[in-house]
Write a sequence for this structure.
C-alpha cells in the first residue's frame, strides 16, 4: 500500500484546474484560517502537477499573501514565499482527476446531520460562549438555531415509521357462476371482515 507523503510546495508553483466547477466563499475560508489554521493539505495530480482538491484554500492563501497578511498556522514561510502542505496522487488519467474534483466537492454534501446531536453540540458550545459565527460557515447563529428547532418539531410530527411499515397482502380470487352469486359472496366476505372488490 502506498503511503501519502506530505510535501511543502510554494503556493505560486501550484497549478489550479481552470475546469474546477466549485465556487468558494474565500472570506469565510480566511476566517477559518485565522481561527483554526491551515489544517487540510492540498491534493495535486503528480502526473500533471495540477491541483485537484483545495482550490478554495489556495485562493484564500494567495489572497492573504498578496495583501501581506500574516501567515496562517500550518503554512511555512521561507524567503518570503509561502509553502503549503500538499499530497501528491497519481490519477489514472486526466478524466479520473476531474472526476475526483467533483467527488471531493460533492461527497461533503452527501449524508445528513443528526439534528439532535448537532443541536446539543451547538447548545453546549453557545452555553460555553464559544463563537460559532466566525470561520465555521454559520452566517446567522440565531437563524441556524431556529432552523434546527424547526427540524426537531418536524421530526416529532412524523409518525413512527413502524406504524406505516409495509404490510404484506394476500389475494384470493373467487369465481361466481352469476352476478347474483357474486353479490352474495361479496356481502358474506365483507361481513366476515375481509376487504373485497368486485371484478367483472
Amino acid at each position: 500500500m502506498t503511503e501519502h507523503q506530505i510535501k511543502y510546495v510554494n503556493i505560486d508553483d501550484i497549478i489550479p484546474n481552470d475546469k474546477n466547477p466549485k465556487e468558494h466563499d474565500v472570506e469565510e475560508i480566511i476566517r477559518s484560517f485565522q481561527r483554526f489554521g491551515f489544517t487540510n493539505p492540498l491534493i495535486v495530480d503528480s502526473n500533471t502537477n495540477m491541483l485537484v482538491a483545495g482550490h478554495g484554500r489556495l485562493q484564500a492563501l494567495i489572497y492573504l499573501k498578496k495583501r501581506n497578511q500574516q501567515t496562517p498556522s500550518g503554512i511555512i514561510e521561507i524567503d518570503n514565499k509561502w509553502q503549503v502542505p500538499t499530497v501528491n496522487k497519481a490519477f489514472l488519467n486526466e478524466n479520473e482527476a476531474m472526476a475526483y474534483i467533483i467527488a471531493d466537492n460533492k461527497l461533503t454534501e452527501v449524508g445528513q446531520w443528526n439534528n439532535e446531536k448537532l443541536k446539543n453540540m451547538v447548545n453546549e458550545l453557545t452555553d460555553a460562549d464559544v463563537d460559532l459565527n466566525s470561520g465555521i460557515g454559520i452566517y446567522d447563529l440565531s437563524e441556524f438555531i431556529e432552523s434546527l428547532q424547526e427540524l426537531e418539531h418536524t421530526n416529532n410530527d412524523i409518525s413512527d415509521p413502524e406504524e406505516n411499515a409495509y404490510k404484506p397482502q394476500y389475494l384470493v380470487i373467487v369465481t361466481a357462476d352469476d352476478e347474483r352469486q357474486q353479490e352474495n359472496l361479496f356481502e358474506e366476505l365483507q361481513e366476515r371482515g375481509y376487504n373485497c372488490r368486485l371484478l367483472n
Residues 115-157 form one domain. Strands lie at 6-10, 42-45, 50-53, 76-78, 81-89.
